Amino acid sequence: MNVASVVHIDKRVIQSFETWPLVSVRFRKDTGEMRFTYVNSQAWQVLLSKESKYPDGAIFAKTSYNTKNDPSFPSSLTPLNKRRLQFMVRDKKQYTDTQGWGYALFTKDSENWKQDLNTHSKACAACHQIVSDRDYVFSTPTFSKTTTFPTWETQLKFQEVNRSKLPSEVLKKLPQKVHSVYVLDTHMSNHYFSGTLDEIRPLLTRQSFLKGKPSLFLSNNKEHFSLVIPQPQMTCKSNEKGFLGVHSLDNFNGNKFFEIEFCHEN
Questions:
Q1: HSE-up (13 A, CA, CB side) for residue 39
Q2: 60 vs 64: CA distance, rounded Å
Q3: Which of 103, 149, 185, 222 has its CB surrounded by the most CB atoms within 10 Å?
Q4: Do residues 70 and 164 share a domain?
Q5: Which of the listed residues 134, 165, 197 is the one where a domain comes to its end?
Q6: Is the domain of 38 the same as that of 91?
Q7: Taking 70 as the threshold, does the pLDDT of residue 101 lie above it?
Q8: φ/ψ (deg, to 5) at 30
Q9: Angle at 150 between CA 144 and CA 153, to 5 degrees
Q10: Residue 2: what pLDDT?
């Protein structure tokens, strides 16, 4: 595939990136996965200098693992099995459509992702615009203790929208008594993939927690959405609130949805 934003990673890099400096480890609460981020020497030098301008050739590599409870230490989670690999490569001339970064996604077996790579790449770039002040890089080194970065709340905005302006498929999941929702106003509405609908849920949940109303991420073509609805009747801890998360699946016109109930602490 000859798409400017899609990266073709040398197999030697895939086989050796875990020998690079380990920058950070993050845990995805919504998916239960642990993510390890590595960088090559060009990116590592920028991180050491605490600057935010990456040269051509800088590479970030991230590997994700499912997790399980540690039987010897029940309050701990441990990596179980690999889920996927992701790469982010700096080349300002080649990847002009995605802010000078190219993206690659592989399965746990280091095979190319079977879905549309261009769609995934554009979705990655759209999400990384949240941290444009950091040269579009989310990762921060574990030794960085004093740097303060903008939060999602300051980078992304919500608009209150009347239910009459929402697509019919969203209204099927929205309670009749709800007259308006908070819709996320973001460039990610133009470029997204199925994972975006999961990844955006924590932000929608926080907005719904604070405002007491449903929050919605809606694609610009109105074909896909992620919706979080407060559920006052749910039984949660005293410092938590209950929510229903709903997002459309690929067969949107067939009225198929993914739904999950959960409790959230602010």
A1: 22
A2: 13
A3: 103
A4: no
A5: 134
A6: yes
A7: yes
A8: -75, -30
A9: 135
A10: 37
Are 27 and 113 found together in one domain? yes
Which one of 104, 134, 164 terminates a domain? 134
Per-residue model confidence (pLDDT) at position 1? 35
What pTM was estimated for this model as a whole?
0.72
**Of 213 and 12, which is predicted with more confidence?**
213
Average pLDDT value for residue range 140-162: 71
> Is residue 31 in some structural domain?
yes
DSSP string, 115-158: S-HHHHHHHHHHHHGGGGGGTT-----TT--S-----HHHH-EE
Tokens 């759209």 — which residue?
126
How long, in residues, is the chain? Answer: 266
What integer pLDDT is reported at residue 50 of this predicted model? 79
**What is the domain-level CATH number for residue 18?**
3.50.70.20
**Out of 51-55, 105-109, 207-211, least confident range:** 105-109
**By the 8 A CB rule, do 9 and 104 touch?**
yes
Instruction: State how many domains the chain has.
Output: 2
Residue 26 lies inside a defined structural domain of this protein:
yes
Has residue 144 been placed in a domain?
no
Q: Do residues 161 and 256 share a domain?
A: yes
Residue 1 lies in a domain: no
Nearest residue to 203 (alpha-carbon basis) of 219, 220, 217, 188:
217
Residue 247's domain spans which residues? 152-265
Q: Which residue has the tokens 């994700």?
A: 64
User: Contact, 9 vs 111, CB < 8 A?
Assistant: no
Alpha helices in the chain (DSSP H): 11-16, 41-49, 117-128, 152-155, 168-171, 194-199, 201-211
